[in-house]
Amino acid sequence: MKPRRLGIYVHVPFCLSKCSYCAFVSYPGAVDPHRAERYVDAALKELGTKASMKDACHSGWTLFIGGGTPTTLGSEVLSRLVLGSVSIMREKGWSEPVEASVEANPGTFDAYGASMLVDSGVTRFSIGVQTLVDPELEAIGRIHTAAEAKAAIRAARSAGARSVSMDLMTGLPGQDVVSLARTLDEVSSLEPDHVSCYALTLEEGTPLMKSVQDGKVQLPDEELCADLMEEAQRALEGMGLLRYEISNYARKGHECLHNLGYWSDMPYIGIGTAAHSYDPASSIRSWNTTDPDRYSDLIARGLPAMEGNERLCAKTAMSDALILSLRTSYGASLDEIEQAYGEQFEQDKLDALSWGASVGLVESIPGRKYKLTAKGMMLSNALFTKLV
């Protein structure tokens, strides 16, 4: 039987300042302590009503607190959220989480907070660095400096976290191969266990998109963006970080188990504002209201905060599972996905995979398995567009 692990994601929708490229559901400004406490109370109450599927998920559970910027809640309140989540799951008959991650941003994270969170059960920090070149940080509206980012990484390490991860971005305004190499040299000296490296994408409605459209900001051209991603891959792998997913690199044993759950079609429960839940067994996806105060009000009154839901047809669910599996270095097994959903893939999906193999984006492995090639990792959207 394929392992089933339950993922629990808690969304904290608050940030001190919203970055110019960000399209996530988040609200800028200092968080009133009462509002923060009330939000955490609601999140824990919602988790208490949703934590289930113990019999079906025999490989344990993971906790991931993301945002937004969870560390804007303050160390005491955020630690209470971690401790409360673990306590609730224990009451439901679960053991300790196999991984407990917290996203943190420099400027709202220090050694004291890191130690308190580790003491509360956090095993993994994911720190939003993006770049270690100050003008590039300023260009995308980050509130911290490169020096503060490095201090945050060291704080996470000194606190004794099992894994320390950092987020990087390529294709930033003003970025070139030389400036990226400077960032990567600094990254190497920090010796992270894990790096998530994303190419900047322009999202509708963001200040950065408007600035680019108005001609006020210029981004690297397509050729340079490709060079930047290749340089990042070369450098990160040179640090001993293996590329286990299109945008993620890790030392062996430090892969993000929570995110691997998403890519492996495992169930997850979303807690908090705008959080999504999905159970492959029923193919039902649901999501919460995007208003944090409405969310807290509804939960406090004993009402669900769900804003909508949908049941995916088997073909759509299978297509999603195929694409997510292909994102990883482990690839996708057509037989496993067909067995899970009780249906066979339609011919257009098989044709798309054959096309991908013919142009070198994907390789076929005996046993009806497929995985992206190195070229496919760089140009995956060309294949995924056909699979959709």
Number of domains: 2
Sketch the major β-sheet.
Answer: 9 strands, mixed
Spans of at least 5 consecutive residues whose pLDDT stays below 50 are none
Across the major sheet, the strand order is 9-10-8-7-6-5-4-1-11
CATH topology (fold) name of the largest domain = pyruvate-formate lyase- activating enzyme
The top-level CATH class of the largest domain is Alpha Beta
- Regarding quaternary structure, what we see is single chain
Distance between the termini: 28 Å
Overall number of strands: 17
Structural class: alpha/beta
Percent in strands: 15-25%
The Rg value, from CA coordinates, equals 21 Å
State the helicity in percent bands. 40-55%
In CATH, the architecture of the largest domain is Alpha-Beta Horseshoe
CATH superfamily of the largest domain: tm_1862 like domain
Tell me the overall shape. Answer: globular
Architecture overview:
Helices cover 42% and strands 21% of the residues. The chain folds into two domains: 258 residues, Alpha-Beta Horseshoe (pyruvate-formate lyase- activating enzyme), CATH 3.80.30.20; 74 residues, Arc Repressor Mutant, subunit A. With 388 residues, it is α/β, with parallel strands linked by helices. The model has no long low-confidence stretch (mean pLDDT 94).
